[in-house]
Amino acid sequence: MASFLGFAEPEPTPQQVIAGLRATAEGGEDLVQLLSPEGERVTDSRFEPWVADVDVDRLRALYRDMVLVRRADREANALQRQGQLSIWVPLLGQEAAQIGAGRALMPQDMAFPSYREHGVAWCRGIDPTELLGIFRGTDHGSWDPHATRFHLYTIVIGNQCLNATGYAMGQRFDGRVGDGEGETGEATICFFGDGATSQGDVHEGFVWSAVYDAPVVFFCQNNQWAISEPLERQTRVPLYQRARGYGFLGVRVDGNDVLATLAVTRWALQECRTGNGPVLIEAFTYRMDAHTTSDDPSRYRLAEELELWKLKDPIERVRVNLVRTHGESQEFFDEVAAESDTLAARLRAHCLAMPKPKPERIFSEVYAQSSPLLDAQRDEYLAYHSSFEE
């Protein structure tokens, strides 16, 4: 049994590997967990120092983050069903993974999302209303990536891993890492799903980051399903163990545990800031809704599987801990619920007031310069489209 810095890396049998990959498993013996599904605080000596500052007020703040992000997600999902958005990408069930990782970032760090990181966007100061234009078709993202230190959403699966690696290499070449100063050193974090690990761009990012010791944390939200493909059809080993093949550290964390995710991500980012990166984090979580609103998960997964993971709800375990351990009053939860209602109403009002995208945007907002062929395609499409108008 090999290990890196105390992180055990067992060599399981093929049967154990498959069992460890399935959504019904607890994540294996290497799973880092600080808050059990029952809301009980558990200890892990490797990561306790990284959450030493999390008192009851910080725990309340994490709970609030998750509740508000979930409510914004549910409202946007409903807006799509009502024809106000062209598509929506739900994050239901992955709130702890995103809030834990997002709150681990320091202001100088850079984040590269895929298309589901609404919780990380929230942590970087992106108002949920700024996400709607992407899914309504009115813009490609309205925030400033330089000011927010949060890149625009990436629709091409896995491509952000190359972008993040290149950016992190620049941080390395510019001397912004390796000084031992956590307050000034920089790191990059890149978010992707288990399905993206089957894309070549992800592996190229791993190779380049390892060769150049780039300060990048690869944060994989393993939600068990690459659209309709289960994890065991993508890998023969747990995803975090893939880091061994590239020569850097890999850790599996309970992605439904906001405390563990916060601790592990803080640790990993500091590894990068001080010149010890890259690091792969596999956040073992579950997608409790469809891949997107164009997907029907009932066609490929069992209802029993979803019910099992509902018992591991990331928000509920924090609520239970606040009540049982800290004696939190119902007044606090009511206040957060009321705040979430206000956020949902504001999100809906903003969406309904947005302009309806015109069909020519398909052509005018994709290419920097037009061409005769593109013009001909545009004219043909617009003529076809207008034939349906009354």
Q: How would you portray this structure in words?
A:
The chain folds into two domains: 2-353, Rossmann fold; 359-390, no CATH class. It contains 15 helices and nine strands. The protein has helices at 14-21, 56-81, 95-104, 118-123, 129-136, 145-148, 159-173, 200-211, 243-246, 258-273, 303-310, 314-326, 330-353, 361-364, 372-386; strands spanning 2-4, 7-9, 110-112, 188-193, 216-222, 225-226, 229-230, 249-254, 279-284. Strand 1 (2-4) and strand 2 form a beta hairpin. Helix 2 (56-81) runs parallel beside helix 13 and helix 7 packs parallel to helix 8 (200-211). The radius of gyration is 21 Å and the shape is globular.
Secondary structure topology:
Layout: E1 2-4, E2 7-9, H1 14-21, H2 56-81, H3 95-104, E3 110-112, H4 118-123, H5 129-136, H6 145-148, H7 159-173, E4 188-193, H8 200-211, E5 216-222, E6 225-226, E7 229-230, H9 243-246, E8 249-254, H10 258-273, E9 279-284, H11 303-310, H12 314-326, H13 330-353, H14 361-364, H15 372-386
Helix pairs in contact: 2-3, 2-12, 2-13, 3-10, 7-8
Summarize the structure.
The chain has helices spanning 14-21, 56-81, 95-104, 118-123, 129-136, 145-148, 159-173, 200-211, 243-246, 258-273, 303-310, 314-326, 330-353, 361-364, 372-386; strands spanning 2-4, 7-9, 110-112, 188-193, 216-222, 225-226, 229-230, 249-254, 279-284. The chain is an alpha/beta fold and 390 residues long.
